[in-house]
Model the fold of this input.
Amino acid sequence: MINLRNKIPPVGSLVAFEAAARHMSFTRGANELGVTQVAISRQIKSLEEFLSVRLFDRLNRAVRLTPEGEEFQRVVTGGLTQIADAVVEFQSGRASNYLVVGATTAFSAYWLMPRLAKFRADHPEVDLRFAVDDKCVDLKSSGIHVSIRYGAGDWAGLTSTYLCDSEVLPLCSRAYWKDRAQVDDPGVLMDEFLIDFDYVVDSRWSSWFEHFGIEVEKDPADISIDAYTSMVQAAQNGQGIALLSSPLVDDLIKNGSLVAPTSLPRQKLAGGYYLVTPKKMEACPALGIFQQWVLREMKVEKEKNV
Done:
């Protein structure tokens, strides 16, 4: 930890300097703070000695900031403003009600963001902040209170709460599939333009065909994309058929942005979605609110899809 004791001047001298610099007058600064002009002058002189730099030019009946004084004014004003904002937050209780939520790009874009307005309407007292990252970052060192991850739910140092399974199915745009009827033979898709996700191994086309009993000698995908959002966009734009997962794209299916070219059942993957929090984390009032909200939303979605 950095020892600031001998690196920061007394707070009183900073407050005195800020008031005098803002009014460009020792007298008006003193009146604002309820002290004498002599006291303000003494505080600023002490500050200049501490910094070994002159902050004001003393003119006849006036003062003027030196270039160093102007630079220091910007720093002091910004710092005191941040402190004042933090005090207001603590006094109003808002500081204990902010929550940093981690999520992948895909989960954030297709599940969290579309529901964010609803959360804010239900819980206006919670200040949500998002840390979107496709890597499994260390939650504690990143300042993340809770994250939504895909996997087996057994991450070291984390407490996991199961949310839902991940199930993939072939999806494309209406423009791509046109007026063709759904097919029940997975082999038909071998002749289509297939888009693969080069990230999760068990959701690739080779695994999907094998799941339905079709042996593949080579990679059946025509292109491979390592960004989930780009893969979804390619499918929506009529570029081909992609294996996309529930619950991420359920809303896109409901609004007709994506259609299923087959009547085959969804393929359940080995992994699932979990809410994870660091073990031995300090109590955070907003955490319980967010966790219960996500679990409730997931339950509602499951009931709709039954």
Summary: The chain has a mean pLDDT of 87.
